[in-house]
């Protein structure tokens, strides 16, 4: 059994997994359930969306993470909420370690980037950037002031250096690699004619791109570089997104709740369909390794004053509304 822990709003990210014929047995539970339940069944627990938890929720989830991993045979937890890095801290580390050429800054710190252009996006939610490419310091200062006047909390805004280039012709690309415990695998590419690459259908790709994609998928190209990012981020389950600049991978974020999409199966390109099936089957085989081969049933949840306060003092408990 695999139990995903997350927020109810994004449980649909597992829809594609539900459709796969080789899927493992799994359930989805909320953090509200995790904090309230008195029994934890034997399973591999995957903590998702840990970058969206506040500090107290991360503290509680971190205690339960450790409790699960100390429960013995039949119990495992992935993604330590107390240690996993969110977008800003990860981007800073990647730059400091010389992996990424670009840096990131909090808007509240009156940033003065060493190079432009930059753009601004939110930390607590995954939405498109709040700005286009900003060309200089004066423009950046003006945009930060404008966003503050609109009511944006500046400690939730990150200024990120632009680091991208077209991959084939006028097409930009977003590459991905998964970590599923001790299994690593590359995934399908997403293409766009703009620098901010988001999924826009199965066949938005340059001619003959699927043949090169097949070769890279077969060889798990760039997985060794991705491993370093997962280790730096303290992430045991998730997807890292990156692109190539000057032939070198530049890593943009780790997604704690990657979407098991089925849209790529709608492609009209036979090679792209072959790529999609190969990537999905490999990912699902990795998921099946998380199943716990044991007859253990359950253990009690932690006994802790913070958990007691969460359960019995409703004025301190807002998880039902958030999750």
Would you write up a description of this structure?
It is a single chain. With 323 residues, the chain is α+β, with helices and mostly antiparallel strands. It folds into 3 domains: 2-84 and 294-322, no CATH class; 103-161; 172-288, D-amino Acid Aminotransferase, Chain A, domain 1 (2-Layer Sandwich). The protein has helices at residues 15-19, 31-36, 55-69, 87-96, 137-149, 209-219, 223-233, 270-288, 305-312, 319-322, and strands at residues 2-6, 26-30, 39-41, 43-47, 75-78, 104-106, 118-122, 157-161, 172-180, 183-186, 190-192, 237-245, 248-255, 298-300. Strands 9, 10, 11, 12 and 13 form a 5-stranded antiparallel β-sheet that branches. The protein has a 4-stranded parallel β-sheet with strand order 2-1-4-5. It has a 3-stranded antiparallel β-sheet with strand order 6-8-7. Helix 3 (55-69) links the parallel strand 4 (43-47) and strand 5 (75-78). Helix 6 (209-219) packs parallel to helix 8 (270-288). The two termini are 22 Å apart. 34% of the residues are buried.
